[in-house]
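Q: What structure does this chain adopt?
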Amino acid sequence: MVLGNGLVANGFKRYEHDDRFLIFASGVSNSANREVAEFVREQELLEYSIRENQHKTLVYFGTCSVYDPVLNNSPYVIHKLAMEKLIRENHSDYFVFRISNLAGNTSNPHTVLNFFVQHIISGQFFYLWKNASRNIIDMEDAFAICDRILQKETFKNEIINIANPANYAVTQIVGTIEKLLGKKGNYELIEKGSNPVINTDAIRPIISELGIQFDSAYLCRTIEKYFG
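A:
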C-alpha cells in the first residue's frame, strides 16, 4: 500500500498492492515550507495511518537535512524529527529512511535539481550559496537500496540513511547543469551554506551488492538522465 502521489510515492509503485507494507509518502514536499497547516496535515494523516494499519510494516521517509548545520533547525527538519518520534512511540514494526536530495521525474519545483534547472532555463535570478553542498541520489537508486532493505528485513525499527556516499558543491551542480543545457545561470555567489555530514556506512554493502556506481561521473549521468 502506498500513500502519496509525488516522486517518492511513484518510485515505490511496486508496493502499491503489497499489503505487508504501508509506504507513507504523503508528507510535506517543500523543505522550505513554514505553513503550520501543512505540517499538521501530515501529522494527522500519519497518526490515522498508524492507528488503522498496526498490522502493516510502516515505511516513513525522513530527511538527511538533519545532518546539515544550517538546515537542521528549520521548521521542516524539526517536524520530520517529530514524526520519527511519533512512529517510534506508536508503532512496533517500521522502517525510517532518511533520504537525501532526490533526482527523478517530478514537476515539484522545490527539489534541488528542478530549482536550478528551472532558474537557469528561465534566466531568473537566484543566489548561489558558495559554501553549500548537496547530496544527490537518483530516485531509482534510492528505491533499489530501500527495496533490498525491506525485502531482507534488515534495519527493522531503525533509522537508516539513504544517500550518496559523496556530496557535491552546489557550484559543481550548477556548473554541470549549465554545461548540459548550454546556458549560463543568472546568479550571484554569496558566502553562505554548509556541508551535510551523512554516514552511509550501513548501506555500503548494499550499494556494492546492487552494483550502484557512485563514481565521479554519477552527478553528470544523473542530471543528463532527467534533464538531457
